[in-house]
From TrEMBL:
The protein, known as: Diacylglycerol kinase
Stretches that traverse the bilayer: 28-48, 95-116
InterPro entries per UniProt: DAGK (IPR000829), DAGK_sf (IPR036945), UDPK (IPR033717)
Lineage: Bacteria, Pseudomonadati, Bacteroidota, Flavobacteriia, Flavobacteriales
Localization: Cell membrane
Source superkingdom: Bacteria
Sample GO molecular function, one term: kinase activity
Pfam families recorded: DAGK_prokar
Keywords of this entry: ATP-binding, Cell membrane, Kinase, Lipid biosynthesis, Lipid metabolism, Membrane, Nucleotide-binding, Phospholipid biosynthesis, Phospholipid metabolism, Transferase, Transmembrane, Transmembrane helix
Similarity-based family: Belongs to the bacterial diacylglycerol kinase family.
Membrane topology: Multi-pass membrane protein
Amino acid sequence: MWNSYLGKRLKGCGYAFKGALLLLRHEASIQVQAVIGIIMTVAGFYFEISAAEWMLQIFAIGLVMSIEGLNTAAEEIADFVHPDFHNKIGFIKDVAAGAVFFAAITAVIIGCIIYIPKF
């Protein structure tokens, strides 16, 4: 069964779930993002945001957490390949962190668009 198309997809989902748990268990940055995501979800229920606002909010939370995971992967690979300081490795890590910054700013803007009118 595990060699069938469906079996391989299920196996892949298992690896993805394991990766998500590893991130949540070991990475402080993703833990912070998860807590913020929970707070924003509670706020969404409290302020009774619309379906469109829910879609934007869920997209923003997923975007930030996904990019944060990719940033962690890039940093881990860079540290594995070249554990000592190197300008190129520093550049790679900075660019990956910059991607997280763009995602986080996007999420903040989406949050402001949704919640500022509620006050």
